[in-house]
Fold these 2 entries.
Entry 1:
Amino acid sequence: MTNRMANKIALITGSSRGIGRAVALALAKEGAALIGVHYSANADAANATVRDIEALGVKAVAVKADLREGKNAADSLWAQFGEAARTETGSSALDILVNNAGIAFALPLKQTSEVAFDEVMTINYKAPFFLIQAVADHIRDNGRIINVSTGFTRIAAPTHPAYAASKGALETLTLALAPEFATRGITVNAVLPGVTETDMNAEWLASPDARAGAEALSVFSRVGKPEDVADVIAFLASNDARWTTGQMIDATGGARI
Ligand SMILES: NC(=O)c1ccc[n+]([C@@H]2O[C@H](COP(=O)([O-])OP(=O)(O)OC[C@H]3O[C@@H](n4cnc5c(N)ncnc54)[C@H](OP(=O)(O)O)[C@@H]3O)[C@@H](O)[C@H]2O)c1
């Protein structure tokens, strides 16, 4: 175990499963002090992530908030985690926020209802916006904000226009906030995964043809693993990435380059 995350307090949204869980474990392996495992519905998965972090000798707490509730959810999430952090560490400060929780509807333009549009924009863009606002005064100097976007902001995705646009907004926010946070040495970056082996894709990747198509997107001719993306996020979260801010970091395995 390295010590790159020694004394760091991290909050990772959507870390019960998938990429978020892999990020939580990557930061735990690097010796973080406390990790907030946020989830919405799947308490069993969140508790399993907490147990796996604790097995690495790192403190962890599960925090529930349904990001469909936008700012209320963001405020509640921070209130719960801040209190848990005070109990566990004596301080409600935060070093690393990873806005990872997200949903991805495969709905072309004409099939996108207003309800689906509002849901994807609220979970993927509005809630991260207000979570950053909620934690802004609590992030310590030299902290990190990392927003999880998608390669669909670079590669046209007529199958997912509302989803791609919600992440495009998150990327614009990433750039817009970087100068403000830089005054305290805090970096703000986005990571863009490509097709990654998680529950989000399990159903359609079960089709051999669809999987072959997904594999062919990457120059490495395979689908990404959650750890492939998590290691990029762990780098950005570390002191090694102190000179990189306001950037969109591709983690698609060179998809369509
Ligand atoms: N997988 C990919 O191929 C891929 C590609 C590009 C970008 N991404 C992005 O990467 C991020 C993680 O994706 P993933 O594939 O790891 O997802 P996943 O396996 O489907 O896990 C989604 C996570 O988000 C949480 N979540 C879902 N709806 C929520 C809500 N309403 N409120 C709060 N939390 C909610 C889930 O919590 P529960 O467990 O409680 O449901 C879970 O922790 C997302 O932002 C996604 O857009 C993924």
Entry 2:
Amino acid sequence: MKALVINGSPRKDRGATGGILSHFVEGMKNAKADVDIIYSKGLDIGECRGCFNCWENTPGKCIQDDDMTEVLAKIADSDILVLATPVYVDGMTGSLKSLLDRSIPLLQGRFELRDDHCRHPRREHAKTEKLVLVSVSGFTEMDNFDPLIEHVKGLSKNL
Ligand SMILES: Cc1cc2nc3c(=O)[nH]c(=O)nc-3n(C[C@H](O)[C@H](O)[C@H](O)COP(=O)(O)O)c2cc1C
């Protein structure tokens, strides 16, 4: 079982996200998962340009040649994708969001009806089956996670 962990905290392992995440990673390793951890901060990943070349002209391939090429291969090859992020302005961090925006080459441009909902089919080689969210917040109430949870629920259906 391959798990790709993307830590979106700018404080990487020194932050609260990294602290909580380390226990989750330890559990996955104890369960014999093959765990790879990457950090969205510091990667050379340009913002999605919204050109749709990855759907229309170069299917599955972004026209930007940067670190996302390797990240896309890692995502496609993982059984479980773990997104770790502190709550930032009621969502995920910018670097993690930018990375996820760049994940659309894993989808096909055409639409299909899935669970009575219009979605894009995944490409053949994209095999991730589970999405996990690990998060921390500054405020104390659990409802501070609600917008982020809804976002990641949407991702789990669409991505
Ligand atoms: C720019 C910014 C925005 C934040 N927005 C929120 C927020 O909307 N809700 C919240 O509960 N905490 C918010 N926080 C607090 C962080 O979630 C909290 O400090 C968290 O522990 C940071 O994780 P880290 O140590 O991994 O960086 C924000 C922090 C920063 C720096």
